[in-house]
Design a protein that fits this description.
The chain is mostly helical and 167 residues long. The chain has seven helices and no strands. The protein has two domains: 88 residues; 32 residues. Helix 1 packs across helix 2 and helix 1 packs parallel to helix 4. The chain starts with 11 loop residues before the first helix and ends with a helix.
């Protein structure tokens, strides 16, 4: 059960209505009845701007404090489970990295006139395309940094973002 998120601006019945929807997964009619309203009030309650905002805020809070950490743990458990298939473990690792902001690099966008098949290109166009691809490969290789024991970042217990902000 969710313990804390402000329901300011709502009366007690409206707050109970919101809690029943978000915390207990009730539909609007059942939540209205649980809050002491007639079931026919469900649509009217859900239409009130303050109630709609409270539902949205509480759902976001639950996602951030409860659901997202639980989902992350499920991914982590599957990724670390040696009995899980390797493709599934790889997908879990990719999902974790993606959610942390480590997304795979994307190829540079193609120029509009480079949509020809290689068999339709002239020699000059093929050489130009090869040069662009070699340049991109070189840039990706230069962007990668080898980390070993000599140049590994030192862990002082604080996330680097906090150090940068306070630093």
């Amino acid at each position: 059960m969710v313990k804390h998120v402000t329901l300011a601006g709502l009366n007690e019945q409206q707050a109970i209505f919101v809690r029943n929807i978000v915390d207990y997964g009730k539909n609007y009619k059942a939540a209205a009845i649980a809050a002491g309203y007639e079931g026919s009030w469900a649509y009217r309650l859900s239409s009130l701007p303050a109630v709609r905002q409270a539902i949205q805020d509480r759902l976001l809070w639950v996602m951030q404090t409860s659901d997202a950490p639980a989902a992350r743990q499920v991914l982590r458990d599957i990724m670390d489970d040696p009995s899980a298939s390797k493709p599934v473990r790889v997908e879990c690792a990719k999902a974790l990295l993606n959610r942390a902001g480590f997304v795979e690099p994307k190829a540079a966008p193609l120029a509009p006139n480079s949509l020809k098949a290689p068999s339709e290109m002239t020699g000059d166009e093929l050489r130009g395309a090869m040069e662009l691809l070699q340049k991109e490969i070189g840039e990706r290789a230069n962007a990668a940094k080898v980390i070993d024991a000599d140049n590994a970042p030192q862990d002082d217990g604080l996330p680097s973002q906090i150090v940068d902000i306070l630093g």
